[in-house]
């Protein structure tokens, strides 16, 4: 293999704090797309990887799931966290390749299909109204993330799983600690690396108890489906079962809350687009997709080459890791007209926020429904909105978005 191409700009992808500074992050990613779209990254604390930043290349890697495996490194974490999670034995859907992935994914697939979405629509619409009413009751000013955006999708996904409402605050805290382990506000400790997996172990303990309860007394919820699933006549192993819960609980909550809060910020900062949407609510499906592209709550996924290959002519060795930067792909000038413009009528909008190929997000339809129904309730009632303070983003390299969004508004 030839000497790897290295661009210093790519180091931001292994810097959680860089995701809290969007101008700096996007400047670096724009430089990479223009000059070094496949760049080698070797920074202290992380195992080396190739940064893939162009939309077309992300799609090409996602399409070729035999050449580019999810196992054993689906997410960018520190080398120490890689080792600790391997020791725990985590095996979620994002760790699996076909044929195992296809079979395990099928366990919960019906819960996120068209029939299930039709059945949930009324419930989600009712919840959207409830949380817009809470905005009204807050008196015209709130931290939109903490008072609205994190609670609405949490209620949806926990209800789907069958988790009692009394446990919702606990699950919110655990998901924030788990996905916000690089953020000082959410992490349990800035000192002990071992404590960074504490939230994961606590979540596993919670879902172990839930599994036991649903196996003893099955009910009509997703938790019962997972707890009592059988593959080739055998029940899912304990680790696989709780891993399934964990990925649904976290992915089904934080990604959607990030999109809703980021969408709210985009409307506040682009009043012309808010007015356009208010004048023509038929644009809401396109606006939903644009919010998802704009936020890109899942910042990146990783793949591992199963043989020597190339990406955009760059040699990649067997065993090398690749980081697929979704946030970069969704601002690619070759894939989107004026990609740094928030456009509620953008069409086409071939974003990769949900991934592509066999690992396309299982809960994409649910996320779209939640975002759509929330803004369908809010937009006609919203007469004004503006920022009431500085938005704050989560430090992360995986899933993230706003953690605080102070807004001032008036509602009908």
UniProtKB/TrEMBL annotation:
CDD domains hit by this protein: CYP142-like
Cofactors that this protein relies on: heme
Keyword Cell membrane: no
Protein's UniProt name: Cytochrome P450
InterPro entries: Cyt_P450, Cyt_P450_B, Cyt_P450_CS, Cyt_P450_sf
Keyword annotations: Heme, Iron, Metal-binding, Monooxygenase, Oxidoreductase
Family named by the database record: Belongs to the cytochrome P450 family.
């Amino acid at each position: 293999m030839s000497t790897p191409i290295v661009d210093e700009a790519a180091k931001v992808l292994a810097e959680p704090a860089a995701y809290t500074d969007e101008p700096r992050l996007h400047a670096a990613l724009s430089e990479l797309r223009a000059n070094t779209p496949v760049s080698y990254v070797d920074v202290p604390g992380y195992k080396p990887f190739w940064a893939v930043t162009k939309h077309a290349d992300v799609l090409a890697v996602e399409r070729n799931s035999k050449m580019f495996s999810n196992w054993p490194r689906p997410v960018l974490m520190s080398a120490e966290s890689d080792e600790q999670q391997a020791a725990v034995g985590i095996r979620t859907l994002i760790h699996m390749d076909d044929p195992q992935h296809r079979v395990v994914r099928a366990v919960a697939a019906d819960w996120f299909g068209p029939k299930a979405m039709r059945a949930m629509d009324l419930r989600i619409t009712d919840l959207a109204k409830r949380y817009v009413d809470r905005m009204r009751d807050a008196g015209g000013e709130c931290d939109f993330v903490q008072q609205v955006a994190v609670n609405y999708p949490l209620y949806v996904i926990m209800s789907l799983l069958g988790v009692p409402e009394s446990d919702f605050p606990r699950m919110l805290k655990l998901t924030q600690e788990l996905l916000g382990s690089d953020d000082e506000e959410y992490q349990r400790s800035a000192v002990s690396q071992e404590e960074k997996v504490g939230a994961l172990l606590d979540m596993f303990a919670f879902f172990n108890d839930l599994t036991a309860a649903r196996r003893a007394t099955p009910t009509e919820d997703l938790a019962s489906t997972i707890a009592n699933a059988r593959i080739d006549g055998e029940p899912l192993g304990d680790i696989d079962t709780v891993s399934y819960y964990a990925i649904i609980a976290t992915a089904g909550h934080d990604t959607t809350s990030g999109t809703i809060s980021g969408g709210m910020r985009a409307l506040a900062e682009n009043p012309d687009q808010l007015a356009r949407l208010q004048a023509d609510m038929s644009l809401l499906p396109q606006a939903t997709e644009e919010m998802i592209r704009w936020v890109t709550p899942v910042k990146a996924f990783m793949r591992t080459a199963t043989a020597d290959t190339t990406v955009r002519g760059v040699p990649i060795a067997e065993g090398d890791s690749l980081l697929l930067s979704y946030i970069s792909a969704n601002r690619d000038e070759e894939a989107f007209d004026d990609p740094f413009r928030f456009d509620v009528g953008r069409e086409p909008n071939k974003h990769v926020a949900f991934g592509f190929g066999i690992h396309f997000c299982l809960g994409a339809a649910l996320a779209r429904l939640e975002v759509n129904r929330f803004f369908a309730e809010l937009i006609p009632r919203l007469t004004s909105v503006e920022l009431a303070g500085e938005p704050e983003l989560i430090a992360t390299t995986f899933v993230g978005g706003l953690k605080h969004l102070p807004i001032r508004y008036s509602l009908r």
